TrEMBL record:
Superkingdom, taxonomy of origin: Bacteria
Gene source species: Streptomyces yunnanensis
Protein name in UniProt: Reductase C-terminal
CC annotations in GO: cytoplasm
GO molecular function terms noted in the UniProt entry: oxidoreductase activity, acting on NAD(P)H
Length: 399
């Protein structure tokens, strides 16, 4: 294999490039990224970056962006890659493994790693000034500037998932008046189950953030100047707002692959080794639908990238991705960590700490067996049990 192209200069894209070089690939490497930025860390965008000091104009202190970088000059030189940043892939000819770019250029390559990630879902209708999504560094810069316009701001966050909760926590820490709107009866029930989701939802009230559940959003209202003034709820209520942040999930960035012949459906469909039906094309990260599931978490992106590249270089599925699902979220000074495979009906049992202190460790159990873990501010015991759970989840050796 003389040339490999990574489409998506994301976390997964960077880890794919690292894995290629680490696994001995010494051919031409091209990395195509829609954003103009080198790979950066997204999780801090809703937390440390949003709350970092700003100038009078609302611009980020340059020191706040420094820690976001995932690579440095020395590593960039070692990767020896051609970086095409600020460039979008617009079509893929799988037969000839040719990638068409929005610059008019076409790249023909021996191997392709798809790491285009996902894009935020948006509300229907117009998006007035002051309304935001938070996915990219530029999104975070724009939100920071709005929050720094002067004095306490009325912020409405639409969506009570992890991103929404983290943004709400950051805005509350900055002194803004915050409300979270969640269409479900309770945020995070699919991930945590009802009882544990209820405990996590209490964090909002602990910090003066209003949580409105069981209602969707009909649309946004704007004033004569085109700036958002209110959020209209599905039940007819109006919430006054100076800034609105929509965090209602993401969709995998596969539009450009329509008509390519690759199997699509909630991502690029791959086998357990992150390999598509065309062995020279693999996928990793938020865009990859691996063995029937798609994961949107930092750990999955990094681990899948190594597996995908191993199989790309092998020309077949020689290794599968079997890592235990794991994610974390930082909200209101509380670190929430989850690992495992929770299914409806699994019973959570608190084994350490107390929910009243917002610090505990819980095991989800089924038929006397631990299936998943949840911790609030218990990182060390969580890490120990996570390792034990991961070992138990490994298939038994054969023969």
């Amino acid at each position: 294999m003389k040339s490999v192209t990574v489409i998506g200069a994301s976390l997964a894209g960077l880890y794919a490039a690292r894995a290629l070089r680490a696994q001995g690939y010494d051919g031409h490497l091209t990395i195509v990224g829609a954003e103009p930025h080198r790979p950066y860390d997204r999780p801090p965008l809703s937390k440390e970056f949003l709350t970092a000091p700003a100038s009078a104009e609302g611009d980020a202190d340059p020191a706040a962006e420094g820690p976001l970088a995932l690579t440095d000059t020395e590593e960039l030189a070692g990767l020896d890659a051609e970086w095409l940043l600020g460039t979008r892939a617009t079509a893929l000819d799988t037969r000839h493994r040719a990638v068409r770019l929005d610059t008019g250029r076409t790249l023909t390559t021996d191997g392709i790693v798809l790491t285009t990630g996902a894009a935020p879902r948006r509300l229907p209708g117009p998006a007035p000034d002051g309304s935001h999504t938070l996915r990219t560094l530029d999104d975070a810069r724009a939100l920071r500037a709005d929050l720094a316009r002067g004095g306490p701001t009325r912020v409405v966050v639409i969506g009570g998932g992890f991103i929404g909760a983290e943004v709400a926590a950051s805005c509350a820490a900055l002194g803004h008046q915050v409300a979270v709107v969640e269409a479900a009866p309770l945020p995070l029930v699919p991930q945590l189950g009802e009882s544990m989701a209820e405990l996590c939802a209490r964090l909002h009230g602990d910090h003066g953030v209003a949580l409105l559940t069981g209602t969707g959003v009909r649309g946004l209202r704007a004033g004569a100047d085109g700036r958002v003034t209110a959020v209209e709820l599905a039940d007819g209520r109006l919430l006054s707002a100076d800034v609105v942040v929509t965090g209602i999930g993401v969709r995998p960035a596969t539009d450009w692959l329509e008509g390519s012949g690759l199997p699509l459906g909630d991502g690029v469909r791959c086998d357990a080794g992150c390999v598509t039906p065309i062995p020279a094309i693999v996928a990793a990260g938020d865009v990859a639908h691996v063995a029937g599931a798609r994961a949107e978490h930092w750990t999955s992106a990094t681990e899948q990238a190594a597996t995908a590249v191993h199989n790309l270089l092998a020309g077949r599925t020689a290794r599968t991705h079997r890592a235990l699902p794991y994610f974390w979220s930082d909200q209101y000074g509380v670190r929430i960590q989850f690992a495992g495979h929770r299914r409806p009906g699994d019973v959570p049992r608190i084994v350490e700490g107390s929910p009243d202190d917002r610090s505990f460790l819980a095991c989800y159990e089924r038929d006397g067996r631990t299936t998943a873990l949840l911790a609030l501010n218990r990182p060390r015991p969580f890490a120990r049990l996570r390792r034990e759970l991961a070992r138990a989840a490994q298939p038994a050796p054969t023969g």
